[in-house]
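User: Write out your own:

AI:
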Amino acid sequence: MSVTPLPRGDEEQGERPPRRAPAPAPGRAPTLLDSFNYAFEGIIHVLRTQRNLRIHFLAAIAVFAAAIALGVGRTQLISLLLAVAFVLVAEMVNSAIEGAIDVSTTSFDPNAKLAKDIAAGAVLIASVTAVAVGYLVFEGAAAHRTTQALDRVRNAPATITIGALVLVVLVVITTKALTGRGTPLRGGLPSGHAAVAFAGWTAATYVVADDHRFVVSFLTFIMALLVAQTRVESGVHSAREVVFGGALGALVTLVVFQLLG
């Protein structure tokens, strides 16, 4: 009785699992190359599965690009490297702890929740520290670069600010009317909340005096980001609608100040 071999393609049907470095043979310690492969697999895995780590990686890229553009010093760059590494390591350890807990228990355990909360708290501390380091590094360089560009409209009257905000609201309402989606204050393209928040950030950057301009601009920018995040997290807007609204509010306000300041 003969056995007909399966076609070569049959064993490849279905979705292929991702390639991983082969495990070392029993009784053999992993080589140095194996160790590097496992480490890179871990990094790639968390980047694929953890949204927060992807956000932190993008933020790190933006921070280093800004540092290069502003020409920060060697010591300041080292500070940024340590702060960014601190955040990324904390986020990866947090992901590892959550994965280990999820495997070890399938029911609610107060101690498991506490462990996850502590790990998340470590990430929060690392993130706040990184923001503080970033502020201290960029405060001098960024403030010096932006002062000259904003001096001519520093004393812009309050009527220009109010007019810019009103114009942003009108543009948002008009855009929503044309697209036929959402209401002036909820849903649709663009996000009205994000537009007004970033318009306020742009206006504050223009009208504040030199001595306090950077800190006020930084704080209002963070608040604008928080407003945009809440619109996405609440499900009222998509990320695209929020980004479009923020860009619209900032650009309209910028044009108004340039023309009337």
Observations:
- The domain at 38-144 is CATH 1.10.287.3610 (Helix Hairpins).
